[in-house]
Structures are given as structure tokens and as C-alpha cells.
Write a structure and sequence with these properties.
With about 270 residues, the chain is of the alpha/beta class. The chain is about 40% helix and about 25% strand. It has one domain: 3-Layer(aba) Sandwich (Rossmann fold). Strands 6-9-10-3-11-12 form a six-stranded mixed sheet, sandwiched between helices. Strands 2-1-4-5 form a four-stranded antiparallel sheet. Strands 7-8 form a two-stranded antiparallel sheet. Strand 1 and strand 2 form a beta hairpin.
Length: about 270
């Protein structure tokens, strides 16, 4: 069993503190729903875990088993078994999707996968997410619909086989049928022991995948950690009970701090080089 342990995590972006003492532990066989109003640190947490260069950790620790995650580069964190499905995947003209996916798979293995074996694995994964295979031969996410971009993130997850996946609003932009497809893939991976941290503002996805736990992040801190009943209550009444029952004043939403993805930063860095 693998465990991700986050203790007293503080992080800021451009001098603005967003995470103010996050404590969280998740095993690879758990599925944790991440809830909270916009602008309170959910996406920031995911970006910090994966090593987004725009976010600065000022205090605290992240360990994956006995490995200090904060000491690793983003690609090393990926090889360790962490995966982030982006809320807004970047379009990368000129980089063929299948080439990108094969390079990612090879980066995770000691020996490069053969062309034949890769396309065999890719074909099976494409069928599982029910994407047209021709999307694999186009530039990465270029001209993809919002739903196609999200399925492409799930496709990457299938090929990389992480231990714990963080999915940031993976259901946004998906129609009912596509949400069902994504949920079916997640459920299959759950059965294999893969862990999930999933941000969503909609109860439908959570109804389909049945998280083992739910946490609520308010003002950059975890204020609730409990069962699925938390999801149902928030879906019905919103976050007002956080103030009335826990005495926590919910700060107003700040300007979005996650407008630049890890993907786009990596592309800009590659262009510079």
C-alpha cells in the first residue's frame, strides 16, 4: 500500500498565501472527494503536489511513502506514481498526441516500449475512453473540444498507470454520456487499487464513482474530513452550515490562481530551450 501524507502545508503564489496549513493523508486504495468554494485552494493543492513552478511552498511537507515529494521535480513525481488530470489542458501545436503519450510512457519505464506494443496498448486505452483513434494522430489537444481534452487526460492516466491520480474537475465540459464513460474508467481503476483525489462541483460524478471519503477545503485549510454524507449535504444546502455550525467565516473568492497550467509552463520552457 502506498500513502500520500501532507502535513501543515502552506503555499503561496505571487506573494499571496493560498494554502494555510493543509493536513491530508490518502492511501492508494481510497477515493477522496475534494469539495469547497472556488478560490479556496483545491486546485492549488493539486498543483503544489505536482510541483507547479508558479507555486511556492513556505512551510510543511509532502511525503509519498518515505519519499520527500517536495525535493523532486515534476517528472520525478510523475514517475513516483502521482498523476494530475488538468482542469484546463493546454493545446500544443506541432506535438503529435501519440508521440507525446509514447514519450510519457517511455519516461516511466526502464526500457522503451516498441512501436507495435505501444499502439496496441494505445488502441485498447482509446477504446476504453471511447475516443476516435484519429485524435491520437493530431496535435496535442489542438482543436479538441472540452470533452475531448478531458478524455485525453483520462487516456494519459490509463497509459501511465499511476498509484494516485488527482483529477481537477475532470467532469466539466462533459455531457451525460461522457461523464458515465469517465466514471466507468475510474471505477475500473479503483478495482485495481488506484487511489484518487477528485475535485468536482457536481454530485453526479460522485454518485457514480462512490468516494470512500469527502473533505472540504475552506480558506486554504481542510475543515471537514468524513463520509459521503458531506457531499449530499453540500449538494442540497451549499456551504452555509460551515459558518453556522463550525463558526468558520468563508472568505470571498479571490481572482483565480490556477490560470496557468503545468502543461503550458512546460511548453513555454521547451520553446525557450
Amino acid at each position: 500500500m502506498s500513502t500520500l501524507r501532507i502535513k501543515n502545508l502552506h503555499a503561496e503564489v505571487e506573494g499571496k498565501e493560498i494554502l494555510k496549513g493543509i493536513n491530508l493523508e490518502i492511501n492508494n486504495n481510497e477515493t477522496v472527494a475534494i469539495l469547497g468554494p472556488n478560490g479556496h485552494g483545491k486546485s492549488t493543492l493539486f498543483n503544489v503536489i505536482m510541483g507547479h513552478p508558479r507555486y511556492k511552498v513556505t512551510k510543511g511537507s509532502i511525503f509519498f511513502d518515505d519519499v520527500d515529494v517536495l525535493a523532486l521535480s515534476t517528472d520525478q513525481r510523475s514517475k513516483l506514481g502521482l498523476f494530475l488530470g488538468l482542469q484546463n489542458p493546454s493545446e500544443v501545436p506541432g506535438v503529435i498526441n501519440s508521440d507525446f503519450l509514447r514519450a510519457a510512457v517511455n519516461a516511466h519505464n526502464d526500457n522503451p516500449i516498441s512501436t507495435y506494443n505501444f499502439y496496441k496498448v494505445l488502441d485498447n486505452a482509446v477504446k476504453e475512453v471511447q475516443m476516435p483513434f484519429d485524435l491520437a494522430t493530431r496535435s496535442l489537444n489542438e482543436g479538441f473540444s472540452g470533452g475531448e481534452k478531458k478524455r485525453n487526460e483520462i487516456l494519459q492516466m490509463l497509459l501511465l498507470e499511476p498509484k494516485i491520480s488527482m483529477l481537477d474537475e475532470i467532469d466539466s465540459g462533459l455531457d451525460v454520456d461522457a461523464i458515465q464513460i469517465v466514471a466507468d474508467v475510474i471505477k475500473k481503476q479503483q478495482q485495481k487499487g488506484q487511489g484518487f483525489l477528485i475535485i468536482s462541483h457536481y454530485a453526479r460524478l460522485f454518485d457514480l464513482i462512490q468516494p470512500t471519503r469527502a473533505i472540504v477545503i475552506i480558506n486554504g485549510k481542510v475543515v471537514l474530513d468524513g463520509g459521503k454524507d458531506i457531499i449530499q449535504r453540500i449538494d442540497k444546502t451549499g456551504y452555509e452550515f460551515i459558518k453556522t455550525e463550525l463558526g468558520i467565516e468563508i472568505q470571498k473568492e479571490e481572482a483565480k490562481m490556477n490560470t496557468v497550467s503545468i502543461g503550458s509552463c512546460a511548453v513555454k520552457e521547451a520553446i525557450k530551450k
